[in-house]
Amino acid sequence: MFLHCKRIEISDEYIGSGVSFYENEFDNTHVVLNPLSSIKDITNSIGNYISINKTYAEDEFEEDFCYIEQSDFDKSGEFKNLTIDLYPNKITMLFNEELYEINFEIDTAMFIKLKNTLEKIMYKSGKITHHQ
Fold it and tell me: Which of 37, 62, 84, 112 could form a disulfide with 57 if both were Cys (CB 3.0 to 4.6 A apart)?
């Protein structure tokens, strides 16, 4: 799958971390606030996307939950050993025997934030390799 990313959202909170790559730049506030909007309307406003997430365990008896969500829900799922190659302008990864390439244009500050968040997500859940 190839995704030319126009918008990146990064979250890093006490309950988990996530990075979402969107094909469209969107402001779906008008769609979400419209009570007549359907799930299809909301999905169409977002376009294709890939989200890499980790939800942290609530106690020592649980494990972190790592998963990939994407616009094709049939290809979404949990991962335990994901490998990501991170470049200044793209990410490549292999998930469920499918190669993903996500291209983007971001500044240095955003790249550092992306790198740091992906490292948290991948800790004990996979491998991340940085390329210059």
Answer: 62
